[in-house]
């Protein structure tokens, strides 16, 4: 299997490049040479590589900024995905597109299955849902929804918490939004596995277990101290969403039902175990 990775500069793109399975081959051009929103660049790489699979790891992920810049979010998360899906078809490739738990409104009260009706609350969620639908215009394509993705180098919640905990003695973190943290390396491995099986349609993948952002922050403190990434234990205080207003509304409960992925590629590891491994990969750990 030969794959082209779009969005190679991001945390998931790096994870995909690091997780190439035996017998597969991946080409991961830098964003400056293969920008998702530049159809000529993308088509040029598709024509050169002639991949079996195209992984789209690029997205507009600034959730709050999207509320003021809907056109930019739509251009990256929807229009460019539709163009990529058409370009992939022209070279006979399957598109593996990554989406988000933010396509749901968080009011269901149980984990969301792939066929549950989406109802996004934000511009980010709406544009990601539009991108899903454009990707799925072609029945061979695969959409994988995930949540709360982080790695040891990107701009993400884990690294933000580590920085703030080093700078402050006390942090307030939202405790009434529930989801599942996902290590980019584990997500990358799942994408490779699903692509290798020729999966199509909509799947969900995160690490196992559930957490609030507060739970996640407390775990980051504990694992950071154990790994030597933190030198002191900052106090983490739980607060409500109402106490931390943001431009974009977030789902209160966006845990994803992964039964379909479990049946295809097995059950993954708990988010806490994945976080511990990530801490061990930090440069100062």
Automatic annotation (TrEMBL):
Highest rank taxon of the organism: Bacteria
Keyword match ATP-binding: no
Primary role: Catalyzes the reduction of dTDP-6-deoxy-L-lyxo-4-hexulose to yield dTDP-L-rhamnose.
Source organism phylogeny: Bacteria, Pseudomonadati, Pseudomonadota, Alphaproteobacteria, Micropepsales
Cofactor: Mg(2+)
EC number: 1.1.1.133
Family (UniProt): Belongs to the dTDP-4-dehydrorhamnose reductase family.
Pathway: Carbohydrate biosynthesis; dTDP-L-rhamnose biosynthesis
InterPro entries, per database record: dTDP_dehydrorham_reduct, NAD(P)-bd_dom_sf, RmlD-like-bd
EC top class, as a word: oxidoreductase
Name of the protein in its database record: dTDP-4-dehydrorhamnose reductase
Record bears the keyword NADP: yes
Native source species: Rhizomicrobium electricum
Catalytic activity of the protein: dTDP-beta-L-rhamnose + NADP(+) = dTDP-4-dehydro-beta-L-rhamnose + NADPH + H(+)
Stored Pfam families: RmlD_sub_bind
Domain RmlD-like substrate binding: 1-281
Keywords, comma-separated and alphabetical: NADP, Oxidoreductase
Cofactor: binding details: Binds 1 Mg(2+) ion per monomer.
